[in-house]
């Protein structure tokens, strides 16, 4: 008997292609799983079962007639509700956009539809990808699938929960200061923020134009590479889109790490922040595993994390305030408290602050790339702590800035969040693997080598 | 209203935020404090040849 909720993209693709499982039955099974459990977790802001079944039936007909399109054909997925789907509202989880009907598909949506994938719905997010967890919005916040009393990370919270809970094997999120990697870390799944410009932002509600990334969220490393294969590539209609050919991101998955040089950035989680001891132990254990497989571990130091994090914040807030200025002037009360509070500092930043932050950004990007030059990838923490209790606002606010993700939005480097085990509380632990510009291949290679030596990505939460 | 609060209100209104409740004004005060702290980390001694990361390239349009 197939446990559809447990299938990875790779497994489903193989069985769908060989006509061992039906996309319609797969979709129906996942819809049933969602109906049985999502009321506890609020991963979905809006389910699209009619669309899903229609797409599944089309996929089945195509495959029966021999027209298999690729690994996402007939495979269900979800989209963070800031990513447009023609004819469906894109709300950003906000009263401000409650009735905002998308008129075209986002670039990534177009790619998923062309691949024959099956849209299960729009996923919960922090309000405008910045304000969460919030309880004063038209829809409730998503809750952690490992323990619903805990924060699932954000802002791509629903996407992270849905993948962890087995509601879908694939979801897309976005990442401006860590919002794919944060929920990936809190939910015990794999989340990739690729190099800036690798994936088109067209049709995605912006938070910060020069920091926004769209990223795949999956249960395994292989699945993540498969999904990035589908969504990566130059888009001439996205001004930030890189004119760099996308490789097959699965090409190096089985090459191992023998001879690779890994630079560990310990200062981020031992000096600039003092991470939770279980987080630190997870990273150090991972380094030992990789060293046992032949990797050389070197310590590298790109300078204080606050230098990177603060420039990221100045740029983010300046650009976000420009996007939100009119709404904040005309209808400030329609925002949730947290989104309004987090965006408002942008009103007090001057043009000279933004320009100088952008100048410093170029300097820090060169500094980080120089630091990475002698090694192949870097490893550091993602979150400094496991998830906080979702209704403890003070605790969650304390943890909000305790992370090492924002630097790699600033530098534009590819960065992947990888599960490293579980805390004594049963909540997931994680680390981050960072690559050189456009070298997602080596990031995936290291992640896969670690994944093969552990079983973290095969663990599933008990949904009760 | 204390002078500093009055000045903050004027500053916020100059930014176009004229529809804030008292609670939202209090948020704005916190926001200003956060912004002041943030900008302290921006270097002010950059060399004039240090260009911003987003320097426009006309050649991209060819």
Structural commentary:
The complex is a heterodimer of chains A (464) and B (62). By secondary structure, chain A is an alpha/beta fold. Chain A is built from 15 helices and eleven strands. Chain B has 62 residues and is an all-alpha fold. Chain B is 48% helix and 0% strand. The mean pLDDT of chain B is 85.
Summarize this entry quickly.
Chain A is α/β, with parallel strands linked by helices and 464 residues long. Chain A is built from 15 helices and eleven strands. The longest helix of chain A is centred in the last third of the chain and has 26 residues.
Key features of this structure:
heterodimer, A: 464 residues, alpha/beta, eleven-stranded mixed sheet, 15 helices, 13% strand, B: 62 residues, mainly alpha, 2 helices, 48% helix
How would you classify the quaternary structure?
Answer: heterodimer
Structure class of chain B: mainly alpha
Arithmetic mean of pLDDT of chain A: 97
* Residue share in helix of chain B: 40-55%
Topology:
The complex is a heterodimer of chains A (464) and B (62).
Chain A: H1 9-17, H2 23-41, E1 44-47, H3 49-64, E2 76-80, H4 107-114, E3 118-123, H5 157-164, E4 170-175, H6 181-187, E5 190-193, E6 213-218, H7 221-231, E7 261-264, H8 266-272, H9 277-292, E8 296-299, H10 305-330, H11 337-343, H12 351-372, E9 377-380, H13 393-400, H14 406-411, E10 415-422, E11 428-435, H15 440-452
Parallel strand pairs in A: 2-3, 2-4, 7-8, 7-9
Antiparallel strand pairs in A: 1-3, 4-6, 5-6, 5-10, 9-11, 10-11
Chain B: H1 3-14, H2 22-39
């Amino acid at each position: 008997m197939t446990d559809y909720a447990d299938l990875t993209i790779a497994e489903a693709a193989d069985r769908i292609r060989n006509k061992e499982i039906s996309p319609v039955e797969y979709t129906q099974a996942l819809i049933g799983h969602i109906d049985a459990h999502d009321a506890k977790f609020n991963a979905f802001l809006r389910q699209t079962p009619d669309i899903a079944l229609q797409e599944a039936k089309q996929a089945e007909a195509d495959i029966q007639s021999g027209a298999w399109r690729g690994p996402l054909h007939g495979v269900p997925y979800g989209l963070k509700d800031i990513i447009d789907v023609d004819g469906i509202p894109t709300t950003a989880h906000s009263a401000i956009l409650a009735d905002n009907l998308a008129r075209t598909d986002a670039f990534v949506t177009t790619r998923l539809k062309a691949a024959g994938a099956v849209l299960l719905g729009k996923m919960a997010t922090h309000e405008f990808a910045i304000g969460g967890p919030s309880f004063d919005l038209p829809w409730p916040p998503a809750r952690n699938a490992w323990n619903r009393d805990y924060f699932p990370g954000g802002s791509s919270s629903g996407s992270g929960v849905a993948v962890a809970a087995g509601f879908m094997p694939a979801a897309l999120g976005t990442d401006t200061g860590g919002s794919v990697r944060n929920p990936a870390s809190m939910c015990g799944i794999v989340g990739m923020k690729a190099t800036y410009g690798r994936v088109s932002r067209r049709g995605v509600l912006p938070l910060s134009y020069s920091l926004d990334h769209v990223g795949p969220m999956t249960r395994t490393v292989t699945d993540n590479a498969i999904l990035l294969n589908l969504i990566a590539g130059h888009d001439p209609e996205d001004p930030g889109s890189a004119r760099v050919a996308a490789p097959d991101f699965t090409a190096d998955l089985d090459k191992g790490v023998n001879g690779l040089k890994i630079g560990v950035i310990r200062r981020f989680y031992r000096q600039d922040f003092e991470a939770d001891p279980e987080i630190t132990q997870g990273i150090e254990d991972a380094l030992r595993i990789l060293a046992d497989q032949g990797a050389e571990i070197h310590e590298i130091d790109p300078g204080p994390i606050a230098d990177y994090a603060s420039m990221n914040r100045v740029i983010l807030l300046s650009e976000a305030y420009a996007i939100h200025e009119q709404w904040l002037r005309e209808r400030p009360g329609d925002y949730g408290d947290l989104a309004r509070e987090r965006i408002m500092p942008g009103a007090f930043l001057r043009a000279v602050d933004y320009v100088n932050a952008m100048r410093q950004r170029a300097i820090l990007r060169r500094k980080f790339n120089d630091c990475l030059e002698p090694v192949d990838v870097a490893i550091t923490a993602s979150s400094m702590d496991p998830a906080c209790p979702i209704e403890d606002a003070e605790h969650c606010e304390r943890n909000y800035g305790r992370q090492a993700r924002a630097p790699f939005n600033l530098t534009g480097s590819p960065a992947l969040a990888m599960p490293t085990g579980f805390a004594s509380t049963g909540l997931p632990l994680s680390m981050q693997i960072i690559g050189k510009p456009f070298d997602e291949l080596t990031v995936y290679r290291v992640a896969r080598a670690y994944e093969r030596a552990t079983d973290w990505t095969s663990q599933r939460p008990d949904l009760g | 209203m204390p002078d500093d609060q009055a000045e903050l209100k004027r500053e916020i209104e100059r930014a176009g935020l004229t529809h804030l409740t008292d609670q939202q004004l209090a948020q704005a005060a916190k926001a200003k404090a956060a912004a002041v702290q943030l900008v302290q980390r921006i270097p002010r001694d950059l060399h004039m040849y240090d260009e911003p990361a987003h320097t426009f390239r006309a050649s991209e349009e060819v």
